[in-house]
Here is the input.
Amino acid sequence: MENAKKSEIGLYGLTMIAIGSSIGSGIFRTPSEIAGYLPSEGLMLLVWTVGGIISLSGALTFAKIAAQFPRVGGFYVFLKEAYGKLPAFLFGWSMLLVINTGSLAALSLVFTSYLSSFIPLSDNAQLIVAIVTICLLTVMNILGVKFGNIYASLFTSAKLLGILLVVFLGLFFGTNGAVNYANTAFPANSDGLTLVSAFGLALIGVTFSFGGYQHATFVAAEVKDAAKIVPRALVIGILIVCVAYLTINVAYLRFLPIEQIAASKSVASDAINTIWTFGGQLISFLIIVSVVGTIGIYILTAPRIYFAMAEDGLFFRKFAELHPKFGTPVWAIVFQSLWTIILLVFWKTFSNLITFVVFVDSIFFFATALTFFFLIRQKKVSSIIHALVFLAMTGFIVVNTLLGKPMEAVSGLVFLGVGCFFFAIFRRTQKAVAA
Here is the structure.
């Protein structure tokens, strides 16, 4: 009976997890970054298509690994099985210092950029509002005000409604008649980037927007007939996300010339404003609701990872302490939010933050995909091709980011190096306690 309870997720449920985890608030901000690197309609749509292919290849690779190791923990489990405890620890370490906190910081800037549609805010004012927002949501989570199923459904609905509204209005009422979707010209870049380098940097925003589908593999232990259902759900989910992202970018182009898209910090509301002022404000409101919900859930859920690692003796002991009254992992939540604020103040811009996040995240995507060749006993030709495509493209993103955005990339490597030092300390402490 226990196994029956664990295997409750079917094809539809897992597909919804894959879609819901992928479609985030990034699609309302990253097109501006991408248009800045690739200022032609054809290249802009091409990079989203390539991003979909990369995600699909990764999804199929991770699905194969998850079917072989249907355990709770996802990447943490795969890395530990293939390489040992240090890489698995560094994954949790990077979640705290880079991936989750960096994403929180980036999302808070998406929130403030759309809030500017209602209240004009300078860049410094947006930074202050972002910090205040993080603080308020942190206090709410410490007090136990949880973002439950009803609220999660509300912000997910707001996000999807925003996408559908932009797509519908753009496709049928867009006023930019000068769109040339076949235009793949690459004009001279003020930063001196080649087409290959610019394409790779544009892939950072695409990767940030597609990211999240791997969460569907984290629950493989609860999926009925995981070997068949997980790959199918991921393929369907990624294809739907890819269609959604391509159509909303077409809609943006139907509203605004690509130069205006590149200059915009709130592209969705700026696009709708060209035909309907109230519609632009409605989109901004829906995105604000969506982003606040996402930030709240990230603040709530990720500290549980640090809490579990601390209980195992592989993280700061304070992170395993619960608030005596509210029962929440108070120190884990507080440290996470303080570090998010530090990243906000240090990196300042959305572009810097997502580059920092995607670089480190891509390293773990690459390392996890590589476990395919260590963990999978029966390697089919099609599966090998998926893994090789994903490894090649993810490796390209990592190397190109290191060359094109060295400050963000080297910062990420420094944090991983510091993580190795702390792992040695935690392991020594763990052994001393055991003795």
User: Anything to note?
Assistant: Confidence is low (pLDDT under 50) at residues 1-6. The radius of gyration is 21 Å.
